[in-house]
TrEMBL record:
Annotated function: Inositol phosphate kinase with a broad substrate specificity.
Oxidoreductase as UniProt keyword: no
GO molecular function, one term: inositol-1,4,5-trisphosphate 3-kinase activity
Homology family: Belongs to the inositol phosphokinase (IPK) family.
Catalytic activity entry: 1D-myo-inositol 1,4,5-trisphosphate + 2 ATP = 1D-myo-inositol 1,3,4,5,6-pentakisphosphate + 2 ADP + 2 H(+); 1D-myo-inositol 1,3,4,6-tetrakisphosphate + ATP = 1D-myo-inositol 1,3,4,5,6-pentakisphosphate + ADP + H(+)
Organism: Artemisia annua
Superkingdom assignment: Eukaryota
Protein name: Inositol polyphosphate multikinase
Gene Ontology biological-process annotations: inositol phosphate biosynthetic process
Keywords of this entry: ATP-binding, Kinase, Nucleotide-binding, Transferase
Pfam families the UniProt entry points to: IPK
GO cellular component, one term: nucleus
UniProt EC number: 2.7.1.140, 2.7.1.151
Keyword S-adenosyl-L-methionine: no
Amino acid sequence: MLKIPDHQVAGHEAGAGKLGPLVDDSGRFYKPLQSGKRGAEEAAFYESFSSNTKVPEHIRKYFPTYYGTKVMKASTGVEHPHIVLQDLASTRVNPSIMDIKIDSRTWGPEASDAYIAKCLERDRESTSVTLGFRLSGLQVFINDESGFYKPNRDFIHKIGPDDVRVNLRKFVSSNPSEKLDTVPDCSLGSSVYGGTNGILAQFLPAKGDKLHDIYPTYTSHDQSMFINGFPCKNPSNISTYDFKNLLLSQKAFQLSKVGEMSRSRCNRLLSYFNMLSSVISDYNSTTAANIANPNTAAPQKETRSCVSTDVHVNVEFKKL
Ligand SMILES: Nc1ncnc2c1ncn2[C@@H]1O[C@H](COP(=O)(O)OP(=O)(O)OP(=O)(O)O)[C@@H](O)[C@H]1O
Ligand SMILES: O=P(O)(O)O[C@@H]1[C@H](O)[C@H](O)[C@@H](OP(=O)(O)O)[C@H](OP(=O)(O)O)[C@H]1O
């Protein structure tokens, strides 16, 4: 049976007479095709991505399975085409979900003046313009008694860089809370954002990826050494500090060469990476402060063992 998803954190919502996503009992998510080029391009992306056998598994596993498009009765009660995707929340119990919108400008080249004005207002009142990305919404499971930390969308759209950072911290904390005096412990920051399976590492090419095949537009004249996808001249001298602060910015340049993303868009993605990276550092410095002065530091939970993982400097030599 089709129903409105329980776990949607952002975007168009289905309601009385309103077009929005639906889910069914078999784990499928039906996203109404947006009008004009927007919907056509989104469907074309999924068609191309799902049929491209050169996309490596460690990238593909972060995307929902695509089941094509289907004309069906929409949330409005009227027939409408939908993109059919795997419902990523259906196999999870109490899933924590975050929706990030990358870029400082959120309209396409053929947008109408009215649409540009609407987007511009939202980009300016959120961190899209200042940070190059914004938090569109999130939910974090606290416990059975308290349920989810799920801030109101209008509130989340208007927060500044400091509060974005607090919310990125809450997302990986064992103590997320509405209360302003609770310091998020970031105890899962190292494993969710950092570490070999974390978000940061997953954006980087892995050993054996053939960038030429995956991204045909990439043409390199240089033979380079890479550490986790970062160009590197002398790998034995790389410290974790260098990895985060220097090599991360080189990564933006590399990304801008491998795909069709512009250099400026890559820099905005980098701004997001940098903030994730700094959340990992927050946890490490809180832990250091805790060791130095156990009476004044923020309370820590047992999950502290995550601290050792950090952003791994995973040495993988690679020649392109
Ligand atoms: N495959 C999926 N499985 C489960 N939930 C999903 C899936 N795709 C999206 N969602 C949920 O729906 C929300 C909105 O999705 P999305 O951002 O794709 O739509 P939109 O904002 O309405 O459209 P767009 O961003 O394309 O303009 C997400 O924040 C998430 O909560
Ligand atoms: O993802 P978010 O940040 O929650 O916000 C929604 C998202 O930006 C949609 O792209 C937008 O629709 P359009 O781009 O189609 O206008 C929608 O506007 P709406 O609520 O005015 O429909 C927003 O609510």
